[in-house]
């Protein structure tokens, strides 16, 4: 019986994409990685409460994690906060009082428009907020706001 030698690929000598090894100079910046995300937009009051809840780790989703919130945009002009969430989240997002839009996924750098700025910039947070964790935080924030408003 003839033995068969296993195929071992030759070491890569070209600079094609298949053999590219990422370097700091060639790797996408945090803002470029963030641009591949979808964006959940909520009223600023609810969004700020949700950020506090996420940073405190008060959402029961596997234990406290102060880094559970990804980059967040604050738009003063519109009174909204935008949470970056993984691509595809917009397909199933159905939280009342919020909206979720698809990213273009082309790697363009996210730069806040005039009147907006990063509340939590890319690179200082996880790449994107987990949609299930964000949903729970937004629900909790809505309950807290409703309770506070009912006490007035």
Helix/strand order: HEHEEEEH
Task: Please list the strands of the largest sheet in the order they lie side by side.
Answer: 4-1-3-2-5
Number of helices: 3
Work out the strand percent: 15-25%
What overall form do the CA principal axes indicate? globular
Distance between the ends: 88 Å
Alpha-carbon Rg, integer: 21 Å
How is the biggest beta sheet arranged? 5 strands, antiparallel
Mean pLDDT: 75
Unreliable spans are 5-34
Structural class: alpha+beta
Helix content: 25-40%
- Number of E-state strands: 5
Number of structurally distinct domains: 1
Walkthrough of the structure:
It is a single chain. By secondary structure, the chain is an alpha+beta fold. The protein has one domain (35-150). It is 25% helix and 16% strand. The protein is built from three helices and five strands; from the N terminus they run H-E-H-E-E-E-E-H. The protein has helices at 30-34, 44-56, 131-150; strands at residues 38-43, 72-75, 80-85, 99-101, 116-120. It has a five-stranded antiparallel sheet. Strand 2 and strand 3 (80-85) form a beta hairpin. Helix 2 (44-56) packs across helix 3 (131-150). The radius of gyration is 21 Å and the shape is globular.
Task: Offer a quick outline of the entry.
With 152 residues, this protein is of the alpha+beta class. The chain is 25% helix and 16% strand.
Note the topology.
Elements: H1 30-34, E1 38-43, H2 44-56, E2 72-75, E3 80-85, E4 99-101, E5 116-120, H3 131-150
Antiparallel strand pairs: 1-3, 1-4, 2-3, 2-5
